[in-house]
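Hi Y.,

Following your request, here is the sequence exactly as I used it, all 95 residues.
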Amino acid sequence: MRMNQKALADFFATTPRLAELCTQNGWPDPASLKVSVIENKPDEALCAVSFDEVVMEGSGCEAGRVPCWGKIRLRFTPEGNVAATEIESGKSQNV
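Below is the corresponding structure, written out as tokens. Let me know if you'd prefer a different format.
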């Protein structure tokens, strides 16, 4: 079973795994998130993701944004839910 594009976007907008691709102690901006499926099998998919990492100053103001990207493999249950995720590669502009 495969997830549809909306289900993928919803999953990546809420998963904490994207924060592992951040390099500046910021967090992923879900509004900037782009997801492309580059491998699709019945029980797994390899997705390319890109987003802006929001970086804050100590005062609480936004200090900037860092483009980040990576490849994340999703493994599905027979019902099509995500059972496991694995980050295969990733980096930001500052790495």
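The chain has one helix and five strands.

Thanks again,
Q.
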